[in-house]
Structures
1.
Amino acid sequence: MKTSNLPFHERVDVAFKDDFLQESLKKAQEKFITGKANTYKPLGDPEVWRKRAEEVRRHTIDNLDYYLDMLATNIEKRGGKVYFAKTADEASRYVTDLAQSKEVKTVVKSKSMISEEIHLNHALEKLGVDVIETDLGEYIIQLAGETPSHIIVPAIHKNKKQIAELLSKVAGRELPDDPPGLYQFARKVLREKFLQADLGISGCNFAVAETGSLLLVTNEGNGRFTTTFPETHVVMMGMERIVPRWKDLDTLITLLPRAATGQKITTYLTAISGPRRDGDVDGPEELHFVIVDNGRLNAVGSKFQEILHCIRCGACLNICPVYRHIGGHAYGSVYSGPIGAVLTPVLRGFDEWAELPYASSLCGACTDACPVRIPLHEMLVDLRNDQILEKRSPTTERIAFKMFGKMTATPRFYATGLKAGKTVLNLFAGREGVESGPGKLKNWTKERTFPSPAPQSFRDWWKSGKKNNEKK
Ligand code: SF4
């Protein structure tokens, strides 16, 4: 069910009722967590690696302008073209203009979150271009007309029956829900598209400044087909996805697959430096790097700068108890889980994304899981705090907290408030506790039971103890 047009709380309700989603998220998280622990073990102390990775990312983002300049110079030296796009529209326009100038009919794409972020497919499709996602998970959600529900596993919310139905529509006949048969079918369709395509669009796991190179980290061969078959290759890159030197990649590439999927290494690591040279047997005639800002520069120099250290491994999603229950679509953004709950409002502001910083238990598991040590849960608190300072919370809530503050600062009011609260809660309490609370507690008690007030409050118990001691 598509939920993108529903408000946040309704999207969450839909996710709660989806039994397959609940089961599949649980299984996937358990698999990733175990895999990560097993592949981290031989590395020795993971903190040493995480600190090293954090240093690489901090140094890079602290000197982002310097390394972007170095990257652009080196890409151009090797015959590539570079375009810096300030906004999503500028980035899309560059690619659509290019596609029009080359009379492109078919585009093949390997996985690229930034192109999801800027809605590049829609822009190309408006021109009548056939755009095909070639990562299997992305292909499935493209057929379903949905967005990814996980950074690494975009179709984690689909079962084999649903996938068979989607591919059957492409086949024009009913395909059995047998995974190997479905892979074979998708493979055959996609191979034909690679041969037809005039333009290939890839994402960018890392761009290496010192040589102007692109590094793709993939588990399917689609990345290599996308970047070598078509005459023109466009790399879509968020401007923070850069490392200074190949040497810096040692640490990041050691941690990325382990943190993401519990693999020591992915099936393919593809490095591309420039378009086809004389004597090369394959490769594109033209290579374009589109380096996208789209709000990232606003984070530079702010208290949220560290969010640009992210290497999009998905480890914070894989550990998050909230993501485990609501899945990716409930967040409404292409970036879900803790990274999405921070990155989306940082890039896009609070107007549409005010709820996301609240989609967290603040347990800190995401921060502990992050291979580059981004303090995600602290940023979530900061984002909540910013909303309070901007007076974005409902007036009733602001008044309630003001009164609560006054009450807790005055012992006499506090005691009276506690007594009143106990009397009200007792009106709603059953044998097990409060299962359907009054006012705001109603939503809270929809999913869990609020404990009944204790027969004797701590304050009364303390007072009675004191009295007894005085008598002795
Ligand atoms: S915030 Fe950290 S854990 Fe989450 S995706 Fe980014 S790098 Fe991975």
2.
Amino acid sequence: MSATLPSSSSPLLLALREGTRECHKALEARLPFFATGFDTAAYSRLLQAYYGFHAPLEVRLGQYQEAKRAKIPALTLDLLALDLSTAEIDALPLCQALPTINDEASALGVMYVLEGSTLGGQVLKRAMAERLGLGPGNGTGFFDVYGALTGHYWRSFLDRLGRAPSAAASQAATVQAAIATFQCFERWLGRRGVLNQG
Ligand code: HEM
């Protein structure tokens, strides 16, 4: 029966949403995008910290992720647009405490977080255009990495989620990897000093 379920209501997706709801809320509350005084310099520092997490994680996703979902090229262009040099980008500190990816189940959990963030990215892209005058061609390309295809990419990821093995243990491993991704990212951003104080 489950093969006929629309992927938007697959049990795994529901478990991922349920399992990461609090993590998303907590991280969103600490991210400074909407803080008073948040300016382009602060945005650049935040994006540099994003790079330090996403660049090594994207490498680790390796063969589990289709090449077309690569987001680091867009993030690199954003940093160049924000006046970092290639040498400065190459020298950015990289997170060592990344979520473990050792099978399809864990890769799917990590990907859920990264792919899902392209949805919230649409909100951030619009907000940064309004607040900082930045666009996908000069600083917010990462948040709009799939452009007009954002919905299409999300639905095709959900199709893949819908085809994941239904064994309870592998679904639990996917949810655990998603939670770990949020936690590692929040810890890393905290260590880089780019989250809201308090
Ligand atoms: C201030 C920052 C953020 C805002 C305002 C925000 C906002 C949102 C919004 C509005 C959605 C729902 C979009 C939709 O259904 O079309 C969403 C979904 C999501 N966001 Fe965020 N987000 C933020 C940061 C993040 C970050 C940093 C991550 C992960 C690294 C993330 C991961 C996700 C995921 C996984 C979903 C998909 C939930 C689902 O539909 O299953 N978000 N976000």
